[in-house]
Amino acid sequence: MSEAWDVVVIGAGAAGLMAAACAARRGRRVLLLEKNTKPGVKILMSGGTRCNLTHAIDARGIVAAFGRQGSFLHAALAALPPDDLVALFESEGVATKVEPGGKVFPASDRALDVLHALRRQLARSGATLALHEPVVDLQPAGGGSPFAVTSTRRVCTAHRVVLTTGGQSYPGCGTTGDGYRWAAQCGHTIVPPCPALVPLRVDSRWARALQGVTVPDVQVRLRPADGDSRPLRSADLSRHERRGALLFTHFGLSGPAVMDVSRCVTAVFPGLPVTLDCDFLPDLTGPQLLEQFQTAAALQGKRHVAALLAQWLPRRLAEELSSVAGVPAARHLAELTRPERSQLVQTLKATPLPVVGTLGFDKAEVTAGGVALDEVRSKTLESKRVPGLFLAGEILDLDGPIGGYNFQAAFSTGWLAGQHV
Length: 421
Known about the structure:
CATH architecture of the largest domain: 3-Layer(bba) Sandwich
Largest sheet: 7 strands, mixed
Shape: elongated
Helix content: 25-40%
Oligomer: single chain
CATH superfamily of the largest domain: FAD/NAD(P)-binding domain
């Protein structure tokens, strides 16, 4: 004999916890099913276990950050904008702080405090949380009958189902793409999922030799590899160039600037050669940098090239870039020829690094792709294909930049779905 519920929410991540609590507060009898032994696993490991909740920007700024996908979020962000999200957590005793660049974290730097707040909210709402209970089948409603949801422990029915199973990023958290299969069974188109906000592999021995070196301010730009004439699609232009910190690793590159452009490697140029151009001195133009070399040569002619570059960059990077430019690091500034100065400027402003791939879903913070947005009602999050089916969070074809944008989208879409089931 099956159990009857008003609403079944599948997946107890950021969107699912919010959706279940909102629905239960409205008097719905809600069951929240989670395959893991604890909810919010991805919340706990995000932001270096600190959980970057949102960004210190208004709803319009969040929309803009998502580019072409952003307009889908208008209603969700109107229902739960960034300020209201922060106020919600602070009302649960989670003080917040804004770090340079606008990232909002719990003041305690503990993601666990965020999860505890969500669990307290859920408990007060009256929703039932069932842990370590994977869903194995979802049968769509038809002819007025309710959905049939089968887990490893029970069969239940519900007139409303909310899919908040996430994408495929960090599969160790349980986000293995289960929801895509059920959404597809319900007639939804799945935009092919691919890793986003993920470190890049580069084919450069000198770059990998710099493992552990961080550069706080670099402008990076992805482009087709030399000899490839494919243009970037206009919809992707806002996503292929970023400025921020860069980290050299044993496999290639990481850091916010690199991770923000990574989706272009997997979504725009999948399987095709790509080059990442790095401007290591974005505050100086080429002519300004050339003038700096000329002035230094006149005033400090016996100074070594690497010593001058080390004024702006980590010493190890300065020496490697000098080598890349074909100029000995120990060359005196006064001995530089005009072509050598030009080559140094070119290297500092646009060092090309061949990208050969990413670290994949295992190290991706979010998933690009998912349930096609034009098949979901943005004002309610209800499916246009199957009445009573709602979708929220990372299962949707929504992915924003690093900095709390994706958590904001998950919380807001979960909230909005919970208000309409």
